[in-house]
């Protein structure tokens, strides 16, 4: 398409809106239909992030040539392993696959092969890689995206929501085919296959260490005792959110946690007087919230959390110039080379080599230094072979011949114009 082209609105599924599958007998018919059809399978899932606890799927959409579109309610039929089994060896087409694979695995669906249309768009250097923009720019159709943030745990689901969900897989296979053609044309199909295989083979993500450190506004907390208040309130909230199957932010906003940590109320009445705890729902749980604060107050210094999260990597690059000027020079030189390679191949830099991988290698390069040694370092950090082939030699050369430390610029903003 060109900028002057007008996209065609995609308003209805071509085969009509299917009924939502809510029972085992209907599911068996769908399994049979999808098993007898051929070709890739378009797959999508709708969650209720921001409304419910966790990231489970509340609607699963599939489409396959010869089988049509299916909408499945995984709350009514939570075991979809039979469907997953008949589709396991087929190629699954997903958009931003890593967002959906965990909730699909929960109901027994896990692909052996996949095609990620968002990642394909990134490898092609396309400026906008959301599903709507990709369908628009590549296929010339405009998707309605008005219900992406809806509460998909709602029952019954409104018809316009279901139509939106069905349309999300309506053109996914056609989009896959068009993107594959572009990947072949640009010589990037093998790169894409490596990326897709890595996503499909990735283990389920381990729970994040110290998840409470992601509390919005944590930067305002300057001492360990107050950090303990944040931690205790975060876990108290998480327990209640899990019990109620509600998003934690709907149980207690992050701002209320931060304000309690800054104020450090000494009594339940003092906490109840805080504006963020005056609401009826917060007063009902006041003993829980004040108990968390009291627990933090009673902790010994040894029990308090460290000011910063444990981290096994190098310090922030802004500190390198004074602490390790040689490392700063290596990083600046290597980063410039990686940017050049990315631009030459029309790739986002972060899809060529992750910043963390490059920083770690620059901070503590292998000895003796060689292209092969750098390749091994990158491989140990999860880099794919196509990424290594493009970058290892250039990075090794940059490490061996960096600019003088005084001239190396690491994370230094450009001078202001004027």
Give a quick summary of the entry.
The chain is α/β, with parallel strands linked by helices and 418 residues long.
Give structural notes:
The protein has 418 residues and is α/β, with parallel strands linked by helices. It has 3 domains: 194 residues, Ribonuclease H-like superfamily/Ribonuclease H (Nucleotidyltransferase, domain 5), CATH 3.30.420.10; 93 residues, Orthogonal Bundle (DNA polymerase, domain 1); 91 residues, DNA polymerase, domain 1. The chain has a 6-stranded mixed beta sheet with strand order 2-5-4-3-6-7, sandwiched between helices. Strands 1-8 form a two-stranded parallel sheet. The C terminus is likely disordered.
What's the helix and strand layout?
Layout: E1 8-9, E2 20-21, H1 24-36, E3 41-47, E4 57-64, E5 68-72, H2 81-87, E6 91-94, H3 97-106, E7 113-116, H4 117-123, H5 131-139, E8 141-142, H6 159-170, H7 172-185, H8 189-201, H9 224-244, H10 248-251, H11 254-263, H12 268-272, H13 280-284, H14 286-298, H15 320-323, H16 325-344, H17 349-352, H18 355-363, H19 371-380, H20 385-400
Parallel strand pairs: 1-8, 2-5, 3-6, 6-7
Antiparallel strand pairs: 3-4, 4-5
Domain HRDC: 223-303
EC number: 3.1.13.5
Pfam families: DNA_pol_A_exo1, DNA_pol_A_exoN, HRDC
């Amino acid at each position: 398409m060109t900028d002057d082209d007008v996209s065609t609105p995609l308003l209805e599924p071509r085969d009509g809106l299917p009924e939502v599958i809510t029972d085992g007998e209907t599911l068996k018919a769908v399994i049979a239909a999808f098993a007898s059809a051929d070709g890739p399978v378009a797959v999508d899932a709708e969650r209720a992030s921001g409304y419910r606890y966790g990231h489970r799927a509340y609607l699963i959409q599939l489409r396959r040539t010869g089988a049509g579109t299916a909408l499945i309610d995984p709350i009514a039929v939570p075991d979809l392993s039979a469907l997953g089994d008949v589709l396991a060896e087929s190629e699954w087409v997903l958009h931003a696959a890593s967002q959906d694979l965990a909730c699909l695995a929960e109901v027994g669906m896990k692909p052996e092969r996949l095609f990620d249309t968002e990642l394909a768009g990134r490898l092609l250097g396309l400026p906008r890689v959301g599903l709507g923009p990709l369908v628009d720019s590549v296929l010339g159709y405009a998707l309605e995206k008005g219900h992406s943030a809806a509460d998909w745990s709602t029952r019954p689901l409104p018809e316009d929501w279901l139509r939106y969900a069905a349309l999300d897989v309506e053109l996914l296979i056609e989009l896959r085919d068009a993107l594959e053609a572009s990947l072949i044309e640009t010589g990037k199909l093998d790169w894409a296959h490596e990326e897709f295989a890595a996503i499909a083979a990735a283990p389920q993500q381990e729970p994040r260490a110290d998840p409470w450190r992601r509390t919005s506004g944590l930067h305002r907390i300057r001492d360990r005792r107050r950090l303990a208040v944040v931690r205790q309130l975060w876990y108290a909230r998480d327990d209640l959110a899990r019990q109620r199957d509600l998003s934690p932010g709907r149980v207690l906003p992050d701002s209320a946690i931060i304000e309690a940590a800054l104020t450090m109320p000494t009594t339940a009445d003092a906490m109840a007087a805080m504006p963020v705890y005056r609401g009826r729902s917060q007063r009902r749980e006041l003993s829980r919230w004040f108990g968390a604060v009291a627990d933090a107050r009673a902790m010994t210094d040894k029990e308090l959390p460290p000011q910063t999260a444990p981290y096994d990597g190098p310090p922030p690059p802004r500190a390198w110039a004074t602490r390790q000027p040689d490392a700063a020079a290596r990083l600046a030189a290597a980063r410039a080379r990686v940017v050049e390679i990315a631009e030459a191949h029309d790739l986002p830099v972060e899809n060529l080599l992750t910043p963390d991988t490059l920083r770690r290698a620059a901070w503590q390069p292998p000895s003796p230094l060689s292209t092969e040694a750098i390749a091994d370092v990158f491989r140990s950090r999860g880099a794919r072979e196509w990424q290594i082939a493009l970058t290892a030699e250039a990075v090794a050369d940059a490490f061996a011949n960096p600019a003088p430390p005084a001239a190396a610029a690491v994370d230094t903003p450009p001078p202001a114009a004027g």
